[in-house]
Amino acid sequence: MIDLGIEKMMVISVVALIVIGPEKLPRVARTVGTLLGKAQRYVADVKAEVNRSMDLEELKKMKETVETAARDVEGSIHSGAADFEKQWSEATSTAQAALPEVPVYPEYKHPKKKWRIKQGATPTWYKARNGIRTKALSGAARVARYRPHKFN
Q1: Where does it mainly reside (predicted)?
Q2: Domain boundaries, the chain
Q3: How many of the other CB atoms lie within 10 Å of CB of 29?
């Protein structure tokens, strides 16, 4: 870029002080600083956009290569599966003739109807005798059951 040394900066500042004047110099310097900051931000945004577009192009190329590789693998799998199916059918047809018939048994059913439900170890007659609750009551049912009745 521009090579600005200390000597050149001093010459520029002296000329600016003479031409612009000491009253307007701070305002002009502030304006020049803001313009330079805006220019730097604009250049940085352009660089970032170029980098993003380059990355996007690279990602598109990678996506295409992965898709072609997946298609190749899929084709090889399908061709291998067809060969395997043919060999399997040949092998099973020859093996079926050599094997005896296997008897088919009915599906097993557990003798209890509700065998998955856990049953308590304490008998219900013992719970009834000692006043242990065997059924859960909701809060509203409990209030209705134990609320004292008003006699009119």
Answers
A1: membrane
A2: 6-91
A3: 13
